[in-house]
From TrEMBL:
Residues covered by region (Disordered): 1-26
Entry keyword set: DNA recombination, DNA-binding
InterPro entries recorded: DNA_brk_join_enz (IPR011010), Integrase-like_cat_sf (IPR013762), Integrase_recombinase_N (IPR010998)
Protein name: Uncharacterized protein
Length: 386
């Protein structure tokens, strides 16, 4: 549920919350709400807390929009699970003591959840739970100690290298079933284009999904030397910036070719693949979104983030399959960001420029999660244009 201009203001009022028996004022048993009302309950309770602090309804509505729709959806799911857990124990999820929150977190930890997932649960509960001793649940000393203990008991394990080799994939993109570009199927063209755009732009899948082909949102420079892509109007990225930047793709060795290696590099060119994709799907396009589904049931309709992620993973797996190598395990679309960011840093590109392109608010993200050892020593890497 998104709290927008049509949201009835009275739902945020404290008076109506009491009249409807909201858990904000009650201290007894609160039955588990229906699944469809969970997010509404959470948003209403959070809004009521903000109103109680003296803020106007308009300000509260703006504050509630500070979270991305995906974050609100994730918090709603976690809040639903916590609400159900409290309901089975006849406890009020909005006003239960910190001990109940800790018991719930321990239950999740015993079920095998990681420290990072527990942090999401704490953030979701803190968004809707009443303050404890003047502090949010997430800042309660016992909760923070519990999370530190969970981190020691179950430290994260990050692989030092990705499960797939970039050189293998790039070599395979120059051969069937990914070439010749004019003759390959719609699905292989979708796989190749989405992979090359993810790799060359360093963007999240959500950012790729937001790209548009509407007039003035996609432009090619003369001779297909560059491509300029913009996200649809109103799109808010995971890390908002004051000045949205277009995605600028540089062509690799456009024809005429002087050497055989130049023609091979051109097979990896994201501008070439993008141009071929846009023209191929134009006759059956039913959406301004750049990436659209090619399947018979949703042909021409916008592709979801999950679909684009599958395309990127499929490109990697097919590359291995076409070269006769065993497919790697645990491939994720997000790994293209770490691969491209590490290569760019090794190529001497300033770290701040990498962060700007990837949409990271601070270089600390790269230092923590996108390390130089993601590239295996001696392996082939992306062309210098990436």
């Amino acid at each position: 549920m998104v709290l927008g201009p049509d949201f009835p203001h009275r739902r945020l009022s404290l008076g109506d919350s009491r009249q409807e028996g909201s858990p904000l004022t009650g201290r007894g048993f609160l039955p588990s709400p229906p699944a469809g009302a969970v997010e509404a309950l959470g948003v209403a309770s959070e809004g009521a807390h903000l109103l109680a602090s003296g803020l106007s309804t308009e300000v509260v509505e703006t504050l509630l929009q500070s979270r991305a729709p995906s974050t609100r959806k994730l918090y709603a799911l976690k809040w639903k699970l916590f609400t159900s857990w409290c309901g089975r124990r006849q406890q009020n999820p909005v006003n239960c003591p910190v001990g109940s929150v800790l018991e719930f977190l321990q239950d999740r930890l015993s079920a095998g959840l990681s420290h990072s997932t527990l942090k999401v649960y704490v953030a979701a509960i803190a968004a809707y739970h009443a303050p404890l001793g003047g502090l949010s649940v997430g800042r309660n000393p016992l909760v923070t100690r519990f999370l530190r203990g969970a981190l020691r008991l179950r430290p994260p394990v990050r692989p030092r290298v990705p499960s797939w080799d970039l050189s293998v994939v790039l070599e395979a993109l120059c051969l069937p079933p990914f070439e010749p570009l004019e003759e390959i199927s719609d699905c292989h063209l979708s796989f190749k284009t989405s992979f090359l755009l993810a790799l060359s732009s360093l963007k999240r899948v959500g950012d790729l999904q937001a790209l548009s082909v509407a007039p003035s949102f996609l432009d090619f420079a003369p001779g297909l030397s560059k491509a300029f892509l913009h996200t649809r109007t109103g799109y808010v990225p995971k890390v908002p910036s004051s000045a949205p930047r277009p995605v600028v793709l540089q062509a690799f060795c456009p024809p005429p070719f002087r050497e055989p290696d130049q023609e091979k590099l051109n097979c990896m060119c994201p501008v070439r693949a993008l141009d071929a994709y846009v023209h191929r799907v134009a006759p059956w396009r039913r959406s301004d979104q750049l990436f659209i589904s090619f399947g018979p049931q949703r042909r021409g309709l916008p592709a979801s983030k999950q679909t684009i992620s599958r395309w990127i993973v499929k490109a990697i797996l097919l590359a291995y399959e076409s070269t006769g190598l065993p497919p790697p395990l645990g491939v994720k679309a997000h790994s293209t960001r770490s691969m491209a960011a590490s290569k760019s840093f090794l190529a001497g590109i300033p770290l701040q420029d990498i962060c700007n392109a990837a949409g990271w608010s601070t270089p600390l993200t790269f230092v923590r999660f996108y390390r130089l050892d993601l590239l295996t020593p001696g392996s082939s890497v992306l062309p210098s244009s990436f």
